[in-house]
Amino acid sequence: MQSLKSKFYNGLFFRERDKRFKDIFNAVNDGIFIVEPSKGQIKETNHVAAQMLGYEQSEIEGMSISKIHPDEMDQLKIRLKEVMQGRPVITDEFSCVRKDSKKVPVEISFSSLMLDGNTYIMAMLRDISERKEAEKALQEALDEVKFLKNRLQAENVYLRGEIKLEHNFNEITGNSPALKEALTKAEQVAPTTARVFILGETGVG
Fold it and tell me: Whole-angstrom Cα distance, residue 89 to residue 16?
């Protein structure tokens, strides 16, 4: 009789414990997968994860993680193995494939979890789409700054050459392209000892 009574109260305790766990499980703002590591299957999920991926919770539970991470299984297996070997919490970036085949960039924190005497992996998923967009916008802005900097440097070199040309020949009047070309060539040979003949029409100087 006492044994039956103990079992009854134990059953109530575990049901109440499971209810509290479920309440917390579904109250957090991050998506959660409870993964069975030996099979690579999702045992449980919360509504946040289901909504993030466009599924119903019942559709995800029992699903292979390879369906959600088809291109990252090697990386994912390494992380799961590290957790099973005793590393406390591991965080890494992945991309989850939604039901509509679109990809969602996520940050996942992995940790081990004991349930009913078995070890599972708890994966907490955080959508980092906005962060990735901000990083992309920042990189584009930095690329634009670099482009403008290089352009300004090139224009500065050109203007310095123009100023130098004007300064060295300020007693010569004229601003035609032909005269500028002649002055540039004269400047190039000026430091040398070579003899230079300047040809022109009579009366031009």
Answer: 27
